C-alpha cells in the first residue's frame, strides 16, 4: 500500500462534521470573480472543455485558478454529499482509492504525524481544511485590488491535489452508488473538467493522479 500524506498546511482545530456536509462557498455577486465564474459557466456550456479551462484573454492567472478552485470545491462537496450515507466508518474504515492507494491525514499544525482514519473522517478533515483556506482573505482575496500572496500557487496546488482524492475515493469505492443514483454523467463531467483544468496549468503531479490514470487517459483520448 502506498501511503500518500498531505503536505503541511494549517487545519482549523476540531472537525465540523455534519451529514449535510459543508456550506457552499459563494463568490460575491457583482465582483470580478463572479464575472469570471459566469464566463467559465458559459464556456463550459459550449461543450469544449479543453477550451473552457483556458485562461481568458487579459485575465490574471491567480484569479482564474482561485475562481475555479472554489467552483471545484463546491462541485465535489455536492457530489460527495449525495453519497455520504454510503461512505461510513463501517464501509470505509480507511481512506483509500482502490487496493493500492491509501491516504493518511496530516496538516502540519494540529496533526503533524499522518494519521490513519476512516474515509468519512479524512474527507471531513480535508474539506474543512479546504474551506478554511478559501475563507482566508489573505490567501483568497475577494476584493478587487487586493493582491494574491506569493505562496498562492502552492496553496492552490495542495488544495487541488487533496480534492482529487475525494474524486478518487468516490470512483473506486462508491461508483455503484453513483450509478444507482444516476449521477455518473454529472460525476464524469465534473471530473473531466477538473482534470483538464489541472492539466492546462500543470497543477497536480502525475504521480498523485495514478489512482485514476486509466480513466484520465480515457477521458482525454476523446478530446485530442
What is the fold's blueprint, element by element?
Elements: E1 2-5, H1 32-44, H2 49-52, H3 61-81, E2 95-96, E3 101-104, H4 119-135, H5 152-180, H6 184-200, H7 213-221
Parallel strand pairs: 1-3
Antiparallel strand pairs: 2-3
Helix pairs in contact: 1-3, 3-5, 3-6, 4-5, 5-6
Strand order of the largest sheet: 1-3-2
CATH topology (fold) name: Butyryl-CoA Dehydrogenase, subunit A, domain 3
- Residue-averaged pLDDT: 85
Described by the principal axes of the CA atoms, the overall outline is globular
Order of helices and strands: EHHHEEHHHH
Give the count of structural domains: 1
Organism: Uria aalge (Common mure)
InterPro entries: MOB_kinase_act_fam, MOB_kinase_act_sf
Pfam families: Mob1_phocein
Binding site for Zn(2+): 87, 92, 169, 174
Can you describe this structure?
The longest helix is centred in the last third of the chain and has 29 residues. Strands 1-3-2 form a 3-stranded mixed sheet. With 224 residues, the protein is mostly helical. It contains 7 helices and 3 strands, in the order E-H-H-H-E-E-H-H-H-H. Helix 3 packs parallel to helix 5 and helix 3 runs antiparallel to helix 6. The N terminus is likely disordered.
Question: Briefly, what is this?
Answer:
With 224 residues, the chain is mainly α.
Write out key terms for the chains shown.
3-stranded mixed β-sheet, 224 residues, 3 strands, globular, disordered N terminus, 49% helix, Butyryl-CoA Dehydrogenase, subunit A, domain 3, mainly alpha
Amino acid at each position: 500500500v502506498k501511503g500518500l500524506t498531505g503536505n503541511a498546511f494549517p487545519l482549523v482545530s476540531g472537525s465540523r462534521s455534519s451529514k449535510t456536509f459543508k456550506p457552499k462557498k459563494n463568490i460575491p455577486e457583482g465582483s470580478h470573480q463572479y464575472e469570471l465564474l459566469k464566463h467559465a459557466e458559459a464556456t463550459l456550456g459550449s461543450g469544449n472543455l479543453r477550451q473552457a479551462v483556458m485562461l481568458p484573454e487579459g485575465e490574471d492567472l491567480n484569479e482564474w485558478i482561485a475562481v475555479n478552485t472554489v467552483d471545484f470545491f463546491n462541485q465535489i462537496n455536492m457530489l460527495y454529499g449525495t453519497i455520504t450515507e454510503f461512505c461510513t466508518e463501517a464501509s470505509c474504515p480507511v481512506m483509500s482509492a482502490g487496493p493500492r492507494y491509501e491516504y493518511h491525514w496530516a496538516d502540519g499544525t494540529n496533526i503533524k504525524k499522518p494519521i490513519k482514519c476512516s474515509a468519512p473522517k479524512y474527507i471531513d478533515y480535508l474539506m474543512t481544511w479546504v474551506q478554511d483556506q478559501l475563507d482566508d482573505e489573505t490567501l483568497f482575496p475577494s476584493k478587487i485590488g487586493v493582491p494574491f500572496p506569493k505562496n498562492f500557487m502552492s496553496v492552490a496546488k495542495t488544495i487541488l491535489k487533496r480534492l482529487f482524492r475525494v474524486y478518487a475515493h468516490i470512483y473506486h469505492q462508491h461508483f455503484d452508488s453513483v450509478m444507482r443514483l444516476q449521477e455518473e454523467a454529472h460525476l464524469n463531467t465534473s471530473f473531466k473538467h477538473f482534470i483538464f483544468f489541472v492539466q492546462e496549468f500543470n497543477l497536480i503531479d502525475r504521480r498523485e493522479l495514478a489512482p485514476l490514470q486509466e480513466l484520465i487517459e480515457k477521458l482525454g483520448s476523446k478530446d485530442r
